[in-house]
Amino acid sequence: MTRLLIPCVLGVMVTACAVPIYEPEPTSPQAWQRRQESIERREAERVRLCRITQEDDPRREELCRGVEGARS
What we know:
By secondary structure, the protein is mainly α. The protein has a domain at about 30-65. Helices cover about 65% and strands about 0% of the residues. The radius of gyration is 21 Å and the shape is flat. The N and C termini lie far apart (about 55 Å). This is Conjugative transfer region protein TrbK.
């Protein structure tokens, strides 16, 4: 019984890891606009966090990665 249960559990776990998680593309102009505004808000938040993070903060490198004009 255990010999059958272990492969089944492992199979379910591996399958769950392989399921792609994606965001479907918007289908209307309004949905595209909302998507673009959401992206712009996230980027603005990243820039803000990078700007206010202290130089000696260990998270700074991660927060400022890809932010234009960020001091290293």
